């Protein structure tokens, strides 16, 4: 049996791991929420790691409020940077392999082709900077780690773009969505499956990987597909980033090159439209 500790079980990704747990009988999970395991609290971490021997820790905990982070700099740093470091230190001490989730927001979006893992980072805001500092702290602390950068996560859980668009479709007749930011939507359950595959394959090719669903789209294209699937009559207008100012600057292009993880795990990643259909039908259930 492989023993796995999952942090932030009440987050979007944490929920996806809980959904998949019963499909993986060879994996034994311990799920903790942010009050049971606060990653900024070293005593909490020590206490949880002392309860049993874990083989893996999947860290889903993060400060994810991208715009609020511009003000809440200290808190974002405490969770995304120092919290990640705390978890890495515990993994090092207890001989646990860490699988940590990071973000496309470590890049500045100036590229014109998908970002490789080796591409230069240059976060535009506090969220991306603190996530990058977390990555660096993990890499410095612990050899046995996987850092998986992903993008535009959505699922049937918590707040995300899919659920926001469906809510707006039921409330409004017309909506404007940004058409000049390009990225790859990623179904959080696909990401969770890949993480479990790394564990089941006992992969030891530690390091940084990119994972997103296949295809590049704008938020407008993503919204358009959501409304098509939902058979919504809402009028969708394409707007520009400059028409929708936000406290945090976002990368204009943040498509991730996923060939490293595809080759390492010998997987084929689903197209974003296909995964969106599955997520939508799971939402309907
Ligand atoms: N969502 C996206 O579009 C996206 C894109 C790229 C990468 N990512 C990354 O993917 C990962 C999962 O994101 P998600 O979408 O699942 O985010 P989420 O739904 O916002 O979940 C984040 C979770 O972290 C928990 N948390 C916050 N501070 C904590 C602390 N000090 N100790 C323990 N837990 C804490 C939160 O708990 P409370 O609710 O109790 O505060 C929440 O359950 C994150 O690393 C994120 O950076 C997300």
UniProtKB/TrEMBL annotation:
Q: Cite the entry's keywords alphabetically.
A: NADP, Oxidoreductase
The domain of life is Bacteria
Asked if the Swiss-Prot or TrEMBL record annotates the protein with the keyword NADP, the reply is yes
Q: Taking every annotated instance into account, which residue ranges of this chain make up the domain RmlD-like substrate binding?
A: 3-277
Q: One Pfam family this chain carries?
A: RmlD_sub_bind
| GO MF term set | dTDP-4-dehydrorhamnose reductase activity
UniProt pathway: Carbohydrate biosynthesis; dTDP-L-rhamnose biosynthesis
Q: Which Gene3D superfamilies match?
A: NAD(P)-binding Rossmann-like Domain (3.40.50.720), UDP-galactose 4-epimerase, domain 1 (3.90.25.10)
Group of enzyme by EC: oxidoreductase
Biological role: Catalyzes the reduction of dTDP-6-deoxy-L-lyxo-4-hexulose to yield dTDP-L-rhamnose.
This protein is called dTDP-4-dehydrorhamnose reductase
């Amino acid at each position: 049996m492989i023993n796995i500790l999952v942090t932030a079980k009440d987050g979007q990704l944490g929920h996806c791991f809980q959904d998949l747990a019963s499909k993986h009988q060879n994996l034994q999970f311990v799920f903790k929420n942010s009050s049971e395991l606060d990653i900024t609290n070293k005593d909490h971490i020590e206490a949880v790691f002392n309860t049993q021997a874990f083989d893996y820790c999947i860290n889903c905990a993060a400060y994810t409020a991208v715009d609020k982070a511009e003000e809440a700099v200290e808190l974002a740093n405490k969770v995304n940077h120092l919290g990640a470091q705390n978890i890495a230190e515990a993994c090092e001490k207890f001989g646990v392999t860490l699988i940590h989730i990071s973000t496309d927001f470590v890049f500045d979006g100036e590229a014109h082709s998908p970002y490789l893992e080796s591409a230069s980072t240059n976060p535009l805001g506090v969220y991306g900077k603190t996530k990058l500092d977390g990555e660096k702290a993990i890499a410095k602390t612990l050899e046995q780690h996987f850092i998986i950068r992903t993008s535009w996560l959505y699922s049937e859980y918590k707040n995300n773009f899919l659920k926001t668009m469906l809510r707006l479709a039921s409330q409004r007749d017309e909506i404007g969505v940004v058409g000049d930011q390009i990225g790859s939507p990623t179904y959080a359950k696909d990401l969770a499956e890949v993480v479990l595959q790394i564990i089941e394959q006992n992969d030891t090719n530690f390091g940084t990987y990119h994972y997103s669903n296949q295809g590049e789209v704008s938020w407008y294209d993503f919204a358009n597909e959501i409304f098509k699937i939902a058979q919504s009559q809402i009028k969708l207008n394409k707007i520009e980033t400059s028409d929708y100012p936000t406290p945090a600057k976002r990368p204009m292009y943040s498509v991730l090159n996923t060939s490293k993880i595809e080759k390492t795990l010998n997987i084929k990643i689903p197209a974003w439209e296909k995964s969106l259909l599955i997520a939508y039908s799971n939402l309907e259930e």
